[in-house]
Amino acid sequence: MKTITVLGSTGSIGTQTLDVVRENPDKLQVYALVAGTRVDEMEHQVREFKPQIAAMMDEKAAGELKARLHDLPVIVEQGMNGIMRTVTADKPDTVVTAISGRIGLEPTLAAIKEGKNIALANKETLVAGGDLVMDTAKRFGCSIIPVDSEHSAIFQCLEEPNGLLEKILITASGGPFLGWPPEKLNEVTPEMALKHPNWSMGAKITIDSATMMNKGLEVIEAHHLFGLGYDQIEVLIHPQSIVHSMVQYQDGSILAQLGRPDMRLPIQYALSYPVRWPNRFERLDLRGKTLTFIEPNLQEIPALALAYEAGRRGGTLPAVMNAANEVAVYAFLERKIGYRQIVHIVESICEEHEVLDAADLESIIEADDWARKRARERIQNG
Fold first, then answer.
1. What global pTM score does this model have?
2. What pLDDT, in 10s, does the model give residues 195-229?
3. Which of 5, 176, 232, 352 lies at a CB distance of 3.0 to 4.6 Å from 32, suitable for a disulfide?
4. 179: CB partners within 8 A, 6+ apart
């Protein structure tokens, strides 16, 4: 029996994590659930899974949740201090980091320092503080198992020592605007960008998938997870989203992991590793399927090109890129800026930033705060 804390339990990955718990009641037990503001969803989850702690980032939401759950023996926490208590308590052995954004960095580090294994669904944690997180995990002897479908696929294909790898191939759907000319992208609305052709995800990651910044973040995440140089990390556009990623060995062999566009499988594998658990999830049927792969043109995908550049430069630059992107994406969703302005704003903030190479947690947070402030100023000033 594994005992888990789920950060971001009411989001897309969080709710699918709880689907996995339902499928494996004899193997998984929920110790704590953490969410932001969604009180209705959290109340339902607490009543079903009966965690010992429920934490809400929003103070008002925590107060409302506490009143609703007065009949249950559950502790309701609030804010970052409350979240920290859910990941540092003795009982959970695994923390599922499904919370969105850079905010996941601090609780992930705190959990690692308490000896917890991490099922990592928050790519921004490694984008902003990859060196720090991986070094800390090594120092405390903790495992970081990827939940992102692409990184889970790579992880599952690593049957040989990394020294025998030639490269990894991360697949990308290409998003809803694959093949669109640049001038047509000026017409894109939030509603259009939120219609992903294959995956059902949260709003922020769906917009990132449209711009392909999400794939850029995944490139940086892969660099840290698997210890490979950026020249060994290749992106291929695969519109069918069936091959979730591949690894190529030095003898030319390519191993691929295939599956339906369903996050429950990589979530379950991250929680079951090093074994596989059976489940009743729908199976992939390859009959009649066609698989195509397209080399991305980085000149036409500026977000992906920028991420490669930021990753290679390192230091605080990836954290700045990620922070500016978070602000710009939400500004687009609120109709304060146009779709193409998202990447323009991120590029301008990255160009302005004075990179600090030795990035400790304080430096990362300072760089993140600076980038958010500058991005908001750019948006406010038009």
1. 0.94
2. 988 877 888 989 999 999 999 999 999 999 999 99
3. 5
4. none
